[in-house]
Write a structure and sequence with these properties.
mainly alpha; 4 helices; flat
Length: 79
C-alpha cells in the first residue's frame, strides 16, 4: 500500500474508532518499514498496533508483543 493511501486509511480507522483495522494498518506500516530496513519506524508502528490490539482484546497482541520483544522494544508478556 502506498504511503499516502496508508495514511488516509489510518486516519479513517481512527475516525471510525475501528480497532481491528487500526491493528491491521499499523502492522502493515510496521512491516513496510521493516522491509525498508527502518527498524525504529517499524517498532513505532508495531507498538501502536500492539496497544490497539491489547485495548480491543485482539489475538494479534501476542504476535505483536513477540515481535517487539525480539527487538528489545517490549518485555515478553503472557497473553
Amino acid at each position: 500500500m502506498e504511503c499516502a493511501d496508508l495514511d488516509h486509511a489510518l486516519l479513517k480507522a481512527h475516525e471510525d474508532k475501528d480497532s481491528a483495522e487500526l491493528v491491521r494498518l499499523y502492522t502493515l506500516a510496521g512491516d513496510q518499514a521493516e522491509e525498508e530496513g527502518n527498524i525504529d519506524a517499524a517498532c513505532f508502528y508495531l507498538t501502536h498496533a500492539f496497544v490497539f490490539a491489547l485495548e480491543a482484546g485482539l489475538p494479534e497482541a501476542k504476535e505483536l508483543n513477540r515481535r517487539l520483544a525480539e527487538r528489545g522494544r517490549a518485555h515478553p508478556l503472557e497473553l
